[in-house]
Amino acid sequence: MTDRRLTPANGRVAAAHLKGRLAAERFVEGEAAGVAAPLADLLAAPEGARDRQLLLGEAVTVYERCGGWAFVQAAKDGYVGYLLEKALGPPVAATHRVAARATHVYPAPDMKRRERMALSLGARLAVTGTDGRFSETPLGFVPRAHLAPAELSENDPVSVAERFMGTPYLWGGNSAFGIDCSGLVQAALLACGIACPGDTDMQESLGTAAQGPPRRGDLLFWKGHVALVRDAETLVHANAHHMAVTIEGIAEAIDRIAAQGEGPVTAHRRL
C-alpha cells in the first residue's frame, strides 16, 4: 500500500524510479524547479483540499504540467501534490533564508517605501549584494537583520517555534501567516538542520521513544496533534483550541485535550 502523499504518481504520470512498482501511462525523470511565489498551497488534487504549503525558494521536482497545474514533489520532505503552475520558476540557488518570523521585500533599500511582498520564516533567497541595512535579491531588498546564511543551521527548535507565537492556526499551514501543529514542528526542525516530514503521523517516527519527564525539544503526540516541549512544565504548539501558536502548561494541555474527547498522549519522542 503506497502513501499518495509521498508517492510521485497520479495514474497519468509517475517518477521513473517507480517503474515496475505501479501502473502509469508514462514514467518520467521530472524537472527541477523552485517556488517563485511568496507562499503556495500544495493541494491533494487540482482545485482540491490543501495538504501543505511551500515557501519562496523551496525546491520541487515537477513531473507533470497540465491545465495550469503542476504535479510536484517537494525536496524538503518528499510531499507530493499540485501547485499552480504560475507559482513555479527556475531552481533557486539560495544563499540565505528568512530567520525572522516574517519580513518584507522592498523595491529599494528604504523601509519607508511601499513593500512588494511579505515572506515567512523559512523562505529562501539568493542574495546578490548589500546596501546598508539591506540585502539585495532578484526580487528586491530585504532587511539584513531578518536573514541568515542558508547553510547555517540553528541549534534550538523550541526558540524557532516561539518566533511563531500568536500566528493564527491554519489547517495545512506552513508559514508565519498561518500554521498548524505539524507545520510548526517542521519549520522549527528544518531551521535546525533536522529532517522532518510534513504531517503528524509521519513525524511520530522521529527520534526515539522517551521515558520519564519531558525535556526541552521533546515531541508530545496525540491523535492528529503534536507539540514541542519547552521545559518540564510547558509546551509550545499551534492548536485549534486557541486558534494560534501558544505556550501552554503540559498538564493543562493533556487534561484539556482529553476533556475534548481527543484522547491521551500517544507518543513521547526525543530527537
UniProtKB/TrEMBL annotation:
UniProt key word Lipid biosynthesis: no
Keyword Hydrolase appears in the UniProt entry: yes
Molecular function per GO: cysteine-type peptidase activity
InterPro entries assigned: NLP_P60_dom, Papain-like_cys_pep_sf, PG_Endopeptidase_C40, SH3_16
Top-level taxonomic group: Bacteria
Keywords: Hydrolase, Protease, Thiol protease
One GO biological process term: proteolysis
UniProt-listed Gene3D superfamilies: endopeptidase domain like (from Nostoc punctiforme) (3.90.1720.10)
Pfam family, one: NLPC_P60
Residue ranges of every copy of the NlpC/P60 domain listed in the record: 151-271
Ranges in coiled-coil conformation: none
Family: Belongs to the peptidase C40 family.
The protein's name in its UniProt record: NLP/P60 hydrolase
Taxonomic source organism: Rhodosalinus halophilus
Lineage of the species this protein comes from: Bacteria, Pseudomonadati, Pseudomonadota, Alphaproteobacteria, Rhodobacterales
